[in-house]
Amino acid sequence: TPDIRPLVAGNWKMNGTRASLGQIKAMAEGVKGSLSEKVETLICPPATLLYVATALCDDSPLMIGAQDCHQKQSGAHTGDISAEMIADCFGTHVIVGHSERRTDHAESDALVRAKTEAAHAAGLLAIVCVGETGEERKDGKTLDVLKRQLAESVPDGATAESTVIAYEPVWAIGTGLTPTASDVEEAHAFMRSELVSRFGAAGAKMRILYGGSVKPGNAKELMGVANVDGALIGGASLKAEDFLAIYSAY
Ligand code: PEP
C-alpha cells in the first residue's frame, strides 16, 4: 500500500534456546543497510529469550516482540506473561490471536480483543492475527470469518501506530500451501475496506501482513500483492539466511 512502511516479522513459536541467539545476532547485523529505512523488521522469539534478544539488537533496526500476552496487568495467572513484562524487557510488539493460540488455548475473539487492549495500554504494538480454516474456505465463508474476526478481535481504539493486522489462513500455516496471489488480493482488499469503514484514515494506513508458508522463493510475489504490507513468517524466520532473504525481496 502506498505510504505504508512494510513490516517483515518472524514468529519463532515454541522454538529457540540460547543456542539460537546467534541467528538473532546475524539478523540484527543483516538488516543494518539502507533497506531498513523502507522496511521494518521484527523477531518474536519465545519469552525466555526476550530480554537477552533485545540487548543483542541494541544497535540494530531489528525489533523484538513477544508471541502472546495476558489480558491483565498482573496477578494470579500462573505461567502467563503480561504486556508490561514484555515492555519491561524492551519488547516493542506482541502477536495476539495467533491461530495456534485460538486453537490450543481456545482463545475467543473477545479475549484477543482484551489482549490487544492490554498491549496498547502497555505501549506495545499489537499484531492481531485473523484467518479462515480450510473448512471455512471450502464452505465459502472466508470473508465472513475475516469480517467477524476483525470486528470482534480489534478494539475500537486501534490506530495504524498501535495495531497491525496479520492475515493468516490457518490451512496455509506450516503446510507449505499458500493461497493464490488473487485470493490473497481479494482477502486483503476486503480487510482494507472493513478497516477503512470502521477506522477511516487510520484504517487506510493500518498495515495488513500476509502469513502462511512465506519462504524466500515466494516472498516477492506475495509481498507484491496490493494491500499486502509485509509478512508474518513462522518456519522461515528461524534461520537468519531465510529471514534476510525474505526481507531482501523488498
Ligand atoms: C505463523 O505461524 O505465523 C506462520 C505463518 O507460520 P509458517 O510461516 O511456518 O507457515
Please, what is the CATH homologous superfamily of the domain at 1-7 and 80-91 and 100-198 and 210-250? Aldolase class I
Named once each, the bound ligands are:
phosphoenolpyruvate
CATH class of the domain at 1-7 and 80-91 and 100-198 and 210-250: Alpha Beta
H/I helix tally = 11
Class from secondary-structure proportions: alpha/beta
- Distance from N terminus to C terminus (CA atoms, Å) equals 13 Å
- Average predicted local confidence, pLDDT: 97
> According to CATH, what is the topology of the domain at 1-7 and 80-91 and 100-198 and 210-250?
TIM Barrel
Helix content, binned percent: 25-40%
Total strands: 8
CATH architecture annotation of the domain at 1-7 and 80-91 and 100-198 and 210-250: Alpha-Beta Barrel
Radius of gyration: 17 Å
Largest pleated sheet: 8 strands, parallel, barrel
β-sheet strand percentage: 15-25%
Regions with little confidence, pLDDT below 50 for 5+ residues: none
- State the shape: globular
H/E topology pattern: EHEHEHEHHEHHEHHEHEH
Question: Biggest sheet: strands side by side, in what order?
Answer: 1-2-3-4-5-6-7-8
Family: Belongs to the triosephosphate isomerase family.
Binding site for substrate: 11-13, 174, 213, 234-235
Organism: Sinorhizobium chiapasense
Pathway: Carbohydrate biosynthesis; gluconeogenesis; Carbohydrate degradation; glycolysis; D-glyceraldehyde 3-phosphate from glycerone phosphate: step 1/1; Carbohydrate metabolism; erythritol degradation
